[in-house]
Amino acid sequence: MQWIDSVKDPAAMALILVGLFFLVVAAIGVLRLPDIYTRCHAVSLADSLGAFFLLAGLSLHASTNMVLVKILAVLVLLYLLNPAIAHLTVRAAHRSGLKPWSREDT
């Protein structure tokens, strides 16, 4: 099974690099976007996708089954909790009276 190892490592590295790209895009979105609503939108989408690719690459690179189970558990929790956290953050901002950014604000 030598050929599996020769294919597995570059594929894992490619998935990790794609995941890091999306995580960097999410970080840039937090720095560049003007208000909590657009920042939360950027983070919830790009962060989920980046974490998925990153964890998929790590699970492909995992050497034991226990590590794979832990990575998959984190992935499931991430996909269950990330949209809920983003929704609750935006809802709290809206209920506190924070107005969305508009072009007149510049």
Compact overview of the structure:
The chain is 83% helix and 0% strand.
Structure, explained:
- The chain has 106 residues and is mainly α.
- It has one domain (2-105).
- It contains 3 helices and no strands.
- The chain has helices spanning 2-32, 36-61, 65-95.
- The protein is elongated and about 60 Å long.
Summarize the helix and strand pattern as letters.
Answer: HHH
The number of domains = 1
Instruction: Compute the number of helices.
Output: 3
Question: Roughly how much helix do the residues carry, as a percent range?
Answer: over 70%
Mean pLDDT: 88
Give the low-pLDDT segments.
none
Largest sheet: none
Global Rg: 18 Å
Structural class: mainly alpha
Which strand-content bin applies to the residues?
Answer: under 5%
Gross morphology? elongated
Overall strand count: 0
Distance between the termini: 61 Å
Please supply descriptive tags for the structure shown above.
106 residues; elongated; single chain; 0% strand; 3 helices; mainly alpha
Question: Layout of SSEs?
Answer:
Blueprint: H1 2-32, H2 36-61, H3 65-95
Helix pairs in contact: 1-2, 2-3
